[in-house]
Design a protein that fits this description.
Layout lengths: L13 H10 L8 H21 L3 H13 L5 E2 L6 E2 L1 H13 L6 E2 L7 H14 L4 H21 L3 H4 L4 H4 L1 H12 L4 H12 L15 H21 L15 H6 L22 E2 L10 H12 L7 E8 L4 H4 L3 H5 L4 H4 L3 H11 L15 H8 L1 E5 L11 E7 L4 E6 L12 H12 L5 H12 L6 H8 L3
Parallel strand pairs: 5-6
Antiparallel strand pairs: 1-2, 3-4, 5-7, 7-8
Length: 466
């Protein structure tokens, strides 16, 4: 049953509470450590966007949106192309999220940067806002999206919705609204309009389709649209969240959710520092298991020794990374592989780790990896800390009868096991250098890390080069 005990007080809708927060949001009230973390998260995503240009999905998305675009001055990261702001935001979302290497807020189970960053980059650059304003709008969007995601307690995945696209739209709406100067009433309308725009289905999990890659960019596009409609006085529903057909009732039904999580300690407790940077290019739900398998490889376990593998995962992630079992054991493409516990664990056990190169089409046919995937089963982890942590345990039965096991109770990169600043900068460089020179990668890095001393348009001009 849903928890209505701590919903906003009678007479005030959650959209009104969030609108008041957003309309009164002040950049100078953001703690320095939150702003620093925000810049690092932006840097991480920009590196991923650059790396994505080496993949077919990016080229096809560029072609599709290019055919639809009517022209504009907004940049697409890593190209000299200029587009309408909404189309640029759509493409930048595809680039940030397309490799499934972008950050995750664990409690919200959401990749919020992939939608919020394209939104604020497009609007702040178009309107020649300061770098400090761009960072502030990003923080605002992240704080809203992550909290709204947390309300569902991981429930969206259980009923087939992808919160990155669905919830991301609302975070983008308020970030865009702040940059556009909306008042609280206009912010309420914009959220109500966003309710009819927000979307994101998980059906792609059954065949490795590319739908998910466009979810955050579509959320950015939708957020800009909703905020602009609100700016011009277009009336949106007031009960976007708690209404009879509001967001949670329509998408979760009778599943457990807690609306109070959207506003608890809002403005006092910051969620941006809780966002986890991914150390591995795959669904975050798989990381602990991959790292556990990597350690078993380091102990000397080799494919020819293995009789059977059992992986313990949180019950809530089974539908995403363990089923349907036949497809997970033999992924048809790289995207399907990124959501496959059998393939990813088999890769780590064979090769001692996982990189983007292990997701190339040629790697998907590695007979040693597929042989391990074929003998990999899963069980629900009875000691899971989901959604705070995405635990994983790999149990290997060897041909000689020995049983070895490695457990990751707290996945690497989680809020209480974070990557260091140098780890994040190193990841950015590894990704950026796949597409740009060392000198340009360094220049972009410095511009992002010093963004609050510069302008959004200057950063966009630097990013908008082939």
């Amino acid at each position: 049953m849903k928890d209505n005990v701590d919903t906003p007080v009678v007479g005030q809708a959650l959209s009104e509470l969030l609108a008041d927060y957003a309309a009164g949001f002040k950049a100078e009230r953001i703690p320095a450590e939150v702003r620093e973390r925000a810049r690092l998260l932006m840097l991480d995503s920009i590196g991923i966007a650059l790396a994505s240009h080496g993949y077919d999905f990016a080229r096809r998305a560029m072609a599709a949106v290019g055919e639809l675009d009517g022209g504009g001055d907004s940049i697409v990261i890593g190209t000299s192309v200029r587009m309408d702001p909404r189309n640029a935001a759509l493409l930048n979302g595809v680039l940030v999220h397309g490799l499934d290497y972008d950050d995750t807020h664990a409690r919200g189970v959401i990749h919020a940067t992939a939608s919020v960053l394209p939104t604020v980059l497009a609007l702040a650059a178009r309107d020649d806002r300061s770098g400090a304003d761009m960072v502030a709008a990003y923080v605002l969007g992240m704080e809203v999206a992550t909290r709204l995601g947390a309300v569902a307690k991981g429930g969206f995945h259980q009923v087939g919705f992808h919160p990155t696209g669905l919830i991301g739209t609302f975070g983008c709406t308020l970030a865009a609204g702040w940059l556009l100067g909306l008042n609280a009433k206009q912010m309420v309308d914009a959220q109500g309009i966003a309710l009819s725009i927000a979307s994101g289905s998980l059906e792609f999990l059954n065949d490795g389709a590319w739908n998910k890659r466009m979810h955050p960019g579509w959320a950015a596009n939708g957020g800009i649209t909703a905020a602009t409609f609100g700016k011009h006085g277009y009336t949106g529903t007031r009960l976007a969240y708690e209404g009879r057909f509001g967001l949670y009732a329509s998408h979760l039904g009778d599943a457990d959710y807690d609306l109070s999580l959207a506003s608890a300690d809002l403005g006092e407790q910051w969620e941006v520092p809780r966002v986890s940077v991914k150390p591995l290019p795959a669904c975050h739900f798989t990381h602990a298991s991959v790292d556990a398998a990597t350690r078993l490889h380091a102990q000397g376990v080799r494919p020819e020794q293995v009789r059977r593998i059992t992986v313990l995962v949180p019950q809530e992630v089974v539908k995403t990374v363990c089923e349907p079992e036949a497809a997970k054991r033999k992924p048809a493409n790289s995207y399907e592989a990124q959501f496959s516990i059998p393939y990813l664990v088999g890769t780590a056990l064979c090769k001692g780790g996982l990189t983007l190169d292990d997701l190339e089409e040629s790697a998907l046919r590695d007979p040693a990896v597929l042989a391990l995937a074929a003998i990999t089963d899963y069980q629900c982890d009875p000691h899971s800390g989901f959604p705070k942590h995405y635990s994983g345990e790999v149990i290997v039965e060897l041909n000689d009868g020995r049983i070895l096991r490695e457990r990751e109770a707290v996945n690497r990169g989680a809020e209480d096991r974070p990557l260091t600043t140098e780890d994040i900068r190193g990841k950015y460089r590894d990704n950026a250098l796949r597409q740009v020179s060392a000198a340009r990668a360094e220049s972009i890095e410095q511009s992002v890390l010093r963004l609050e001393q510069g302008s959004a348009r200057a950063l966009a001009d630097q990013l908008g080069q082939a």
